[in-house]
């Protein structure tokens, strides 16, 4: 029998060998492992989703709830959340932080990464050193906190993303990518009289879609998910982003502990909690498939030689 | 060729690149403010910091804060917990990531492979706040699914998140659940780089699947494994602040507190800015040597370190 096996990299192995019992047991084990893993990854996600659609009059525990038929689901928790001014406000704040953060981060990171990729630049060694020193030597939380306080950024949304607006790691990944763009392209533009800013915009950026999407995603995830900086720097309730609100909702053992009594109507508390978890994850879940094709490539850059 | 004087050449080079420096201006200022002023502020580790006197005006007290920290009872506890979580995560999730990568690579079922791959990467993008919500649905003492199962078998429900025996396991396992797929990416990429003719030769020689994994697949990705381990050792003092901060509570402080969570509480809740900075600096200096050391080794093993 010919054993024809398609590898993930698209190449075929075709050698006339009969699979042995050991091969069969191996293949079975591989598939069982993947199937078990699938269940382990899926169950916590599924239990949260079904919990969020739990009707108020449901009797039975969460384990049974996972098998509740979809036509018995209730969207009361989502209605309650979307009808709640506090939730809508927090969602809006999170969106502002996301958009402002990613735009600022890319506007700062791209030029720096590009300049670092120019090998002929005088002083490049010093520049590299300037970037690397704070990267390897992390003085910790308090000195940064004092800086943000001294700059008067407390209770400003920018305080959440400005301290992390250039991640040295992301910048170095981007630099590696820019270094891989053939020099001839840049040189010919320069000979035609283009300034460096024009070279960056006209030559480099159109070739760098994958890396910009990837790094943009990394920044976006970090800003959308951030609760720590928001907790440190935003005291005003009107400014709190979604993760802070979510944390308050989750930590409350009953909704009466939460800031607004009965703010969420008659949906079950557990369903409200699960629904807010799901709503917080939604932008990441929506963006994820579009960017998935880019990130494998982008992540591997600069880490290990192929 | 005529030798130009060094300075002249340099001046010409700098003029030629003048528009580059214009591009650099804003990121440069950013680095000075947001990366170097914190380092400058780090001096309060050696000072009796008073908010009214500011960073520069406070009194120097030498190594007082460092002495307090090293002689305190929590010093060994913090160090032990930090290392326990770092090594625990490494020992537990790294083999899982490698096995996952090999299983995805070896599986003959493209659909299963695709679904597992997509779903396994997803949790990496969820925050620890969201993870806490998911874990609550799973572990809550009253209505969590795990306790439903325990009750089904007649057991007594356990409050996992406040139980000092269960807590470390929850930290390590939930981290594995969240990051396993993402950590596998690098190994999958390495596997795809293996020359298929090696497998063909092995098939001709009569090697079965187990032997192919043992003698071709694993040795082929060994350099990547070594590099990943080295890089992880470089950040061994980062045990996962966000995760532990979200999951822990007073009953489990003794097994949950790591350097970073302690620095946060001591600094921003107890206002011991000087002491907290000293501990952060202590961690920063050790961390620096670890990162530099691991990067040097990575380069020696043929990896492409970032700097």
Compact description:
The complex is a heterodimer of chains A (about 300) and B (about 300). Chain A is an all-alpha fold and about 300 residues long.
Order of helices and strands of chain B: HHEHEHHHHHHHHHHHH
CATH class of the largest domain in chain B: Mainly Alpha
* Mean of all residue-level pLDDT scores of chain A: 84
What's the quaternary structure here? heterodimer
Number of helices of chain A: 14
Spatial order of the strands in the main sheet of chain B?
Answer: 1-2
Distance between the termini of chain A: 34 Å
Number of separate strands of chain A: 2
Write down the CATH topology of the largest domain in chain B: MetI-like fold
Note the beta-strand portion of chain B. Answer: under 5%
Strand arrangement, major sheet of chain A: 1-2
Q: Which class do the helix and strand fractions of chain A yield?
A: mainly alpha
Low-confidence stretches of chain B: none
The first-level CATH class name of the largest domain in chain A: Mainly Alpha
Polypeptide structure, described:
The complex is a heterodimer of chains A (306) and B (307). Residues 302-306 of chain A have low confidence and may be disordered. Chain A has 2 domains: 3-76, no CATH class; 79-300, MetI-like fold. Chain A starts with a strand and ends in a 6-residue tail after the last helix. In chain A, 38% of the residues are buried. In chain A, strands 1-2 form a two-stranded antiparallel ribbon. Chain A has 306 residues and is mainly α. Chain A is built from 14 helices and 2 strands. Chain B has 307 residues and is an all-alpha fold. Helix content of chain B is 73%, strand content 1%. Chain B has helices spanning 6-16, 18-41, 54-57, 64-71, 74-106, 110-121, 128-139, 145-152, 166-192, 196-204, 209-234, 241-247, 253-256, 259-269, 273-300; strands at 47-48, 59-60. Chain B is flat. Chains A and B meet through strand 1, strand 2, helix 1, helix 2 and helix 4 of A and helix 1, helix 2, helix 5, helix 6 and helix 7 of B.
């Amino acid at each position: 029998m010919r054993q024809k096996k398609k590898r993930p990299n698209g190449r075929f192995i075709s050698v006339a060998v009969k699979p042995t019992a050991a091969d069969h047991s191996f293949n079975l084990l591989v598939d069982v492992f993947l199937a078990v893993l699938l269940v382990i990854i899926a169950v916590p996600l599924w239990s949260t989703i079904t919990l969020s659609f739990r009707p108020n009059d449901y009797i039975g525990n969460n384990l049974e709830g996972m098998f509740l038929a979809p036509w018995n689901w209730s969207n009361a928790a989502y209605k309650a959340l979307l009808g709640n001014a506090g939730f809508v406000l927090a969602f809006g704040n999170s969106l502002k932080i996301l958009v402002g953060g990613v735009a600022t981060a890319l506007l700062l990171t791209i030029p720096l990464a590009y300049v670092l990729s120019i090998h002929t630049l005088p002083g490049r060694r010093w520049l590299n050193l300037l970037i690397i020193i704070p990267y390897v030597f992390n003085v910790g939380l308090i000195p940064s906190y004092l800086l943000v306080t001294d700059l008067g950024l407390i209770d400003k949304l920018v305080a959440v993303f400005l301290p992390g607006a250039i991640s040295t790691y992301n910048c170095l990944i981007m630099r590696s990518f820019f270094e891989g763009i053939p020099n001839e392209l840049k040189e010919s533009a320069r000979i035609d009289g283009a300034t460096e800013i024009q070279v960056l915009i006209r030559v480099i950026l159109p070739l760098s879609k994958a890396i910009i999407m990837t790094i943009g995603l990394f920044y976006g995830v970090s800003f959308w998910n951030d609760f720590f900086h928001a907790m440190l720097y935003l005291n005003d309730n009107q400014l709190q982003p979604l993760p802070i609100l979510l944390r308050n909702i989750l930590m409350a053992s009953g909704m009466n502990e939460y800031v607004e009594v009965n703010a969420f109507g008659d949906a079950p508390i557990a369903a409200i909690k699960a629904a807010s978890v799901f709503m917080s994850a939604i932008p990441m879940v929506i963006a994820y498939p579009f960017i998935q094709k880019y990130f494998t490539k982008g992540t591997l850059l600069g880490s290990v030689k192929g | 060729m005529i030798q130009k004087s060094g300075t002249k050449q340099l001046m010409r080079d700098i003029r030629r690149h003048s528009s580059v420096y214009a591009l650099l201006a804003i990121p440069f200022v950013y680095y000075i403010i947001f990366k170097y002023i914190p380092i400058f502020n780090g001096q309060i580790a050696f000072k009796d910091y008073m908010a009214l006197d500011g960073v520069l005006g406070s009194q120097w007290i030498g190594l007082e804060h460092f002495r307090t920290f090293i002689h305190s009872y929590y010093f060994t506890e913090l160090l032990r917990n930090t290392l326990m979580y770092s090594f625990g995560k490494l020992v537990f999730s790294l083999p899982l990531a490698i096995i996952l990568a090999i299983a995805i690579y070896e599986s003959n079922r493209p659909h299963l492979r695709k679904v597992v791959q997509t779903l396994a990467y997803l949790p990496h993008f969820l925050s620890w706040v969201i993870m806490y919500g998911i874990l609550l649905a799973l572990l809550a003492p009253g209505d969590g699914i795990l306790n439903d199962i325990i009750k089904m078998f007649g057991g007594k429900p356990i409050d996992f998140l406040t139980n000092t025996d269960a807590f470390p396991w929850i930290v390590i396992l939930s981290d594995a659940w969240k990051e396993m797929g993402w950590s596998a990416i690098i190994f999958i990429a390495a596997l795809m780089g293996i020359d298929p003719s090696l497998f063909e030769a092995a098939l001709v020689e009569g090697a079965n699947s187990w032997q192919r994994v043992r003698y071709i697949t694993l040795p082929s990705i060994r350099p990547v494994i070594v590099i990943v381990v080295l890089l992880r050792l470089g950040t061994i003092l980062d045990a996962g602040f966000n995760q532990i901060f979200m999951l822990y509570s007073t009953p489990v402080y003794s097994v949950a507190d790591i350097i970073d969570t302690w620095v946060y509480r001591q600094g921003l809740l107890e206002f011991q800015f000087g002491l907290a900075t000293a501990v952060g600096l202590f961690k920063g200096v050790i961390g620096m040597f670890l990162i530099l050391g691991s990067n040097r080794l990575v380069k020696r093993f043929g990896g492409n370190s970032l700097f």
